[in-house]
Amino acid sequence: MEIVVFGAGSLGSLIGGVLASAPSNEVTLVARAPHASAVGETGLEVRGELEATINPTATTDGRGLEADLAIVTVKAFDTAAAAETLATGSYDIVLSVQNGMGNEETLADALACPVLAGTASYGAILQEPGVVECTGIGDVVLGARAGGRSELADRIGDLFAAAGLETTVATDMPRRLWEKLAVNAGINAVTALTNTENGAVLEPPADTLARAAARETARVARSCDVSLSTRAAVASMESVATDTATNTSSMRQDVLTERRTEIDAINGYVVDRAVQQGLEVPTNRILTTLVRTWERGVGVR
Ligand code: KPL
Q1: Which stretches make up the Ketopantoate reductase C-terminal domain (predicted)?
Q2: Nearest atom of ligand 1 to the alpha carbon of 119
């Protein structure tokens, strides 16, 4: 299958690298300059808990490409720009594997082809241009945006699983997306603000904060008619933190490299939806305020 990965940072390079290791796949990574040129010159090394050295095509220019499948792994705030770029090319299927909510809708509004929803809980870090480390085996969950069975999702699920990615094809994607939101709401801002690895949210004193953020997210989900129990949200957050205990969350990576974070699409999204529903989410509100204040301070907001 011909596959283009849009936004091949840490997670996109990991997914693209694993897919490229299957001989039947031809993968193009759309990435930032130093990473794209390193992959072009010496290939992509996947190390850590998954290992491969492969030679996918890499480019910084995603305009006008054609493929069977486009996998979108850009930051949530870049989804609209990615959708515009994707619209200049031609794809049979687009799959969003991003943090935050609403990415699939943004893509579907701009594109004529089917758009699938997805989440990933693998730990991944770009160690240097051309080298991505898998720091925790998680899974990829994908399916129809509105839920229900989808033959396209089954096909893409088989493709991912055959390449060696832990994959679940889900028929309840709206709930799965909220569950992953609870995971990110609990882990990302807490580890970014405290400069700790994901496992820190399992120990005092950060554990109460992470659990409260996940609990609040589940309450907001339920108020939006998504059946996510508090127990399931907290258990999922803790299980991902355990599986990726030594990983640097994507938000901590952003803070360490002084880049804009996904706070608006994660804790900020929980706050916005809570306001609409007339609910209080004090932990998510404080985490959002602190990260936004940091972003302002370093001039990325
Ligand atoms: O999605 C992630 C992220 O860092 O954004 C997790 C699953 C928490 C892995 O670190």
Answers
A1: 175-293
A2: 1
